[in-house]
Write a structure and sequence with these properties.
By secondary structure, the chain is mainly α. It has helices at 2-20, 28-33, 40-51, 54-67, 73-88, 90-96, 101-109, 112-145, 149-207, 295-310, 314-321, 326-343, 346-357, 361-364, 370-378, 382-418, 423-441, 449-473, 479-501, 508-515, 518-534, 542-550, 553-557, 571-576, and strands at residues 219-222, 227-231, 235-238, 244-247, 250-254, 259-262, 270-271. The longest helix has 59 residues, at 149-207.
Amino acid sequence: MIAIVAVLPVVLCTLLIGARGVATMRTTSDFLVASRRISPVLNSAAVSGEYLSAASFLGVAGLVVKDGIGSLWYTVGFTAGYLVMLALIAAPLRRSGALTVPGFAEARLASPALRRLAAVTVLVIGVLYLIPQFRTAGLVLSAVSGTPYWVGVVIAGAAVSVTLALGGMRAATYVQAFQFVLKLVLLVVPALWLVITVGPAVRAEAVHPVEFTHFGKDTTVTFEVDVRLELSEPTPIRDADGALHVYPPGELSMGSGQRVTFPAGAPVPQAGGGRLPGAPGWERPLLDIGGTGYPLLSTLAVLMATVLGTMGLPHVLMRFHTSPDGRAARRTAAITIGLLSVFYLIPGVYGLLGKVLVPQLYLTGATDTAVVALPSQVDTGWPGTLFTALLTAGAFAAFLATSLGLLLVVSGATAHDLMSGGLRTLRTAVFVTAIAVVLLALPAAPIDADVLVTWAFTVAAATFCPLLVLGIWWSRLTAPGAIAGVLTGLVTVSGSILLALSGIPLHGWLAVLIARPAPWAVPLAFAVMVLVSRTGRPPSWSRAAMLRLHLGDRALDADPHPGPADPDLTRRARRQARPGRLPTA
């Protein structure tokens, strides 16, 4: 009942706002960039609503429970990435006039092959980022209502695809801006209530951490995903029928949906490679991925992926194309930094509360649900039920807002860049993509959301970051160099992902660099792009194209011979189009 009351209004509001976009959507430009008429304030709220995903909020809070305070470096990277984006690419990218990142690639270097490769890269990034959104929707709904995992996945996929097919980018913008405000209220208000209610106990625990090595009371744990426990000593466990079993030291498998009770005084098993909440090192302000013993390398790997990957996230970059001009794009990025800085103060609060109140979630493999599990631990009456409903609604708003932007860019890359289709093709691609991602998300429950999201950021950092930085700031970039660099980044990161998923045992610094390959994949992609470009000759129009990217907006407005905004926009633009002429803002 809680889930229905919480989720239904959010889904209905999303669909209603999407339906309002039908009347204003007539062209490809309307669908992809809302005809470039979104104001900076509205756009920044939409960017923030889109960027504050299930993984970046619920996932970070869960990581604090599982891996310790060092997990807050994720929020630093997510926010700092916008500073780099503001300084290097926001305004020039908008002045390029392209509708998509692949469109920019072709406009800058006149290479259809580069555009197709960039479109494939968008598909990889988008799918890696969409899967954790749908996955976390399934886990949260299952934790709150007891429904099967697949129900939340299907609901999220259906709501997002219908909304996007109805209203395109304009609908997505209004939905994401609305859901940013909704998330701000629905996640901040329960946090304040929790801090006021249990603040003294949490502060005492934070100052004098107690290692979570033995259960202080009878604790019932429901495993949301398949988990393998490591028992270091004989462990009593009571099954769902109440029968008590004592398991010897070794490994013990727990299946999805299995419910057991650990008696008071029972030792806490190891699970999922995380660190026991309160164990030595939990409070250390560095990440230690997989307990490899290389916390500084792990932290730098995550920061490089998140900071540089933000510059290459296609659903974020598309937002700047909706701005009226380069100045508006820069203002959008600046306002977004402020909004994100305020919002990212909250995951640490929920993470610390979860460490004190629900440390047993560490065992379940579903620490992403820690946020929605907190109110019922504090109050079993109507206040706990009310705040659980508010947090569930806020969580679903996070899933839907981010999924809208991601599904839009993946569908656009498929229909607009690979197939060169029109509005009908775009709408069809939305539903096909949603079905494919739902099918991929169903078996992805055991994989942590932060792992999938960091992989998406790493692909973006190793492909689009070099392409955009060099394409905007280096006039000697050539099409073969860009293709070689993007292909290098895509292949190396994809190979690392497959190796990490293969289950081959890796240890030490090698395990860190395979699980988080940004420290070597990004410099390699930059180096290949530069070296291959140096062996060739840049296009004759390269300097003119660079000049147009960096001219002020007033100078572009005064240009008596503007180029096309995109080959698909107008017939007049097609007649004017010629290689190397980047369009005006």
